[in-house]
Design a protein that fits this description.
The complex is a heterodimer of chains A (165) and B (515).
Chain A (H helix, E strand, L loop, with lengths): L1 E6 L2 E11 L2 E6 L2 E9 L5 E5 L2 E10 L2 E6 L2 E8 L13 E2 L4 E6 L6 E2 L4 E7 L2 E6 L4 E6 L6 E2 L4 E6 L6
Antiparallel strand pairs in A: 1-2, 1-8, 2-3, 3-4, 4-5, 5-6, 6-7, 7-8, 9-16, 10-12, 10-15, 11-14, 12-13, 14-16
Chain B lengths: L17 E4 L3 H13 L3 E7 L6 H5 L2 E5 L11 H10 L4 E3 L9 H9 L3 E2 L4 H8 L1 H10 L7 E3 L5 H11 L3 E5 L9 E3 L5 H16 L4 E5 L5 E9 L5 E3 L3 E7 L2 E7 L6 H18 L3 E9 L5 E7 L6 H8 L3 H9 L16 E8 L1 E2 L5 E2 L2 E2 L2 E3 L6 E5 L6 E2 L6 E9 L2 H14 L1 E3 L5 H9 L1 H4 L7 H10 L6 H16 L30
Parallel strand pairs in B: 1-2, 1-4, 2-3, 4-5
Antiparallel strand pairs in B: 6-9, 7-8, 7-9, 10-11, 10-12, 10-14, 12-13, 13-16, 14-15, 16-23, 17-18, 19-22, 20-24, 21-23
Helix pairs in contact in B: 5-6, 12-13, 13-15
The chains are: A mainly beta (165), B alpha+beta (515).
């Protein structure tokens, strides 16, 4: 997911991908790094990565943020609205709840119709079918049978049928 | 027992049973705690908007002061006395600010047959006027900053007196405080106009237009001596506090002892403070303020006839509970001999965590406290009157919490207060937390170059916006990712994205299985 913020008077963009429940890939100005992070019961975030380790606690009000990071409080605004091209992520398929992947029907490179069953998720002893939100082509399959997934994680990447991302 | 309204004589101690606290916030909490430790019932008298406040919650009993503006609640002697009688209180503690130094309030409390936890009216009158207090100090043989009265003098006489004092000088309000009604005069041409304006300001702010002239010392330190007096006419003094670091003439960091005060100077300061206290018939807790110049000469400034915000630093280096002593002295107890002449043990520093924006001239800020984590650990004390979720209103004092650190010596105390401030999380409102952090990190503070112009000289560096660090964007990305995948978990009380209509999974973090 792409986050755009106004920080110290400058617009900054960060791309964050959740690789595992406690592992994230963060890309800033073309530089990628991996960060391990956990969310505590009190809402504090512990993180460790190549750039450093720390603890963060935040508060949100609308798009305004105050983020305490190891004794300093950083203020920023989240910028929303017009997304940059190439990040039409709203078409991707995400896990609706935490669970275990029971079936994978999607295959990379194949064309799918809207409503087609792509993944079946088992959660709380129930099975949920995850359906294609529209016609398109499966770009990548990001899960396999037996995987444990959190709510909101990316399962399948779709592209437009005519090839546009 | 017929003279219930008067201060009881020493030796005729009459324990207090029920204490009404005529204040709010951290000081009300502080007083209620002291009362509880002494077995005294406490009553919180509060305005409507404080109904859910910590001090109301922890008090044994509470009375609502009806009305919205502070003039009808915390500033209304009548409403407070009525609440005290209604709750069956036998004493009233005024805290600091509001009516703490109002002779009218003290009189009203005593006329209602209640004990006023503060000095007698005569002492209040003597020290409440700066001009009267200066005369008192001079009579007690204590040096004062060269000054001259203005009342009853013509323009020529005022100019002549000013020339004798020398420029730059200050025009100050006799009834004043907190920098109100005070003007700096750099040269003679500005003098008479400054006197005229200061008189108008003083009359408007304090109901008393008396002003006087005083020499403006260059680069002094502000040191003050805590005193306690008993009804038997005895007063004792405690080691000095240094409170030179001020913004808009209001203290922001206080410490004890002062690096500029050695044992010999301390003894002379304490002696001067005791002389002033005893000659005014002072009973209870008070503070005698001095200016200390670079040469080690000190000058009497004024007396604060109340408990002060910064009293915990004295408590830290002496082990004395000043609020408990206020209550004992108000009940007529005598001071024991062992309490005086204490040498400071270790070093204490207090920082005032305020709801204000240092980048905007310390403009008070308001709002809901979304997150509040206060420091703990060895040598750290926090006095506060708020909790997470509380609303902070600009109609009251901006003080959120006092963070006090004690350690063996000053460098260790600086390390400790720095650690405590780093632990402090205060989100939802704008605070001076980072400003305080930069202040205690400043090399000039480490070198104890703490004169009253400290923030004028170094303050800009402390409000300068810091460059984001490398880890900041990673922390931001993580916060936003958690915020969207688990709303309410990472974002405090207002974690949602109101009005955005965004599906919680839209833009949620990606997941690559099997990696």
């Amino acid at each position: 997911m792409r986050i755009r913020v106004l920080l110290a008077g400058r617009e900054r963009a960060v791309e964050v991908t959740r690789l595992a429940p406690d592992r994230f890939r963060i890309e800033v100005d073309g530089v990628r790094s991996e960060v391990t992070a956990t969310l505590g019961a009190d809402g504090s975030i512990r993180f460790m990565g190549a750039a450093g380790a720390g603890r963060a606690i935040g508060a949100a009000k609308g798009n305004s943020r105050q983020l305490w990071i190891d004794g300093r409080t950083v203020r920023y605004e989240v910028l929303r609205g017009a997304r940059a091209s190439g990040h039409a992520r709203e078409h991707d398929l995400k896990s609706p709840a935490p669970g275990v992947v029971a079936e994978v029907h999607a295959r990379a490179g194949t064309r799918v119709r809207k409503g087609e069953k792509l993944v079946v998720l088992e959660s709380m002893k129930m099975f949920f079918s995850v359906l294609a939100p529209r016609d398109g082509r499966v770009e990548r399959v990001l899960c396999a049978r037996g995987d444990t997934v959190d709510a909101g994680v990316l399962l399948v990447e779709l592209t437009d049928e005519n090839g546009g991302a | 027992m017929g003279a219930r309204g008067r201060s009881p004589a020493a030796g005729a101690a009459r324990p207090l049973r029920t204490l009404l606290v005529a204040n709010r916030g951290e000081i009300a909490v502080r007083v209620i705690r002291a009362a509880r430790e002494m077995g005294i019932r406490s009553v919180a008298a509060h305005a409507e908007d404080d109904a859910g406040a910590l001090f109301v919650e922890i008090a044994d009993d509470a009375r609502l002061l009806p009305g919205e503006s502070p003039s009808r609640t915390y500033l209304s002697a009548e409403a407070i006395c009525r609440a005290a009688l209604d709750a069956g209180a036998d004493a009233v503690h005024p805290g600091y600010g509001f009516l703490a130094e109002s002779a009218g309030f003290a009189r009203a409390v005593r006329e209602a047959g209640l004990v006023f936890v503060g000095p007698p009216l005569e002492a209040m009158a003597l020290v409440g006027s700066k001009v009267a207090a200066k005369a008192l100090a001079e009579k007690a043989g204590v040096p004062t900053v060269p000054w001259a009265a203005v009342e009853g003098h013509g323009e020529k006489e005022i100019s002549r007196a000013a020339a004798k004092i020398g420029y730059p000088l200050l025009v100050k309000a006799s009834a004043g405080g907190g920098g109100k009604g005070m003007r700096v005069v750099a040269r003679e041409a500005e003098l008479l106009e400054a006197v005229r304006i200061a008189r108008v300001e003083a009359a408007a702010a304090f109901g008393d237009g008396e002003v006087f002239l005083e020499r403006a010392l260059s680069g002094p330190r502000h040191v003050e001596i805590q005193i306690l007096g008993d009804a038997g006419g005895r007063a004792i003094a405690f080691p000095e506090r240094e409170c030179s670091i001020q913004r808009r003439h209001q203290k922001i960091l206080e410490e004890s002892p002062s690096v500029a005060v050695g044992a010999d100077l301390r003894a002379r300061l304490e002696e001067a403070a005791v002389a002033i206290a005893e000659s005014s018939g002072y009973v209870g807790a008070g503070t005698v303020e001095f200016l200390l110049d670079a040469g080690g000469s000190f000058y009497f400034l004024e007396v604060n006839a109340r408990l002060q915000v910064e009293h915990p630093v004295t408590e830290a280096v002496t082990g004395i509970d000043l609020v408990a002593w206020q209550l004992r002295l108000a009940a007529g107890e005598a001071l024991p001999p062992g309490l005086s002449g204490l040498a400071p043990r270790g070093h204490a520093i207090e920082c005032r965590l305020n709801a204000e924006d240092p980048a905007q001239g310390f403009l008070p800020s308001a709002g809901r406290i979304e997150r509040l984590l206060l420091p703990t650990g060895p040598g750290v004390r926090v006095d506060t009157g708020v909790r997470e979720g509380d609303l902070v209103a600009t109609r009251y004092d901006p003080l959120i919490a006092k963070v006090i650190a004690w350690a063996e010596d000053r460098p260790a105390a600086i390390r400790r207060i720095r650690r405590a401030l780093r632990e402090t999380v205060l989100l939802g409102i704008t605070s001076n937390a980072e400003f305080l952090g930069a202040l205690v990190d400043h090399p000039a503070f480490a070198r104890a170059e703490t004169t009253t112009d400290f923030l004028t000289r170094h303050g800009d560096a402390m409000v300068a916006q810091q460059e984001p660090r490398e880890t900041d964007l990673a922390a931001i990305a993580l916060f936003e990712a958690y915020q969207r995948s688990a709303p309410g978990m990472a974002g405090g009380r207002d974690a949602g994205v109101p009005g955005s209509g965004i599906d919680p999974w839209d833009g949620a973090p990606g997941f690559r299985c099997g990696s």
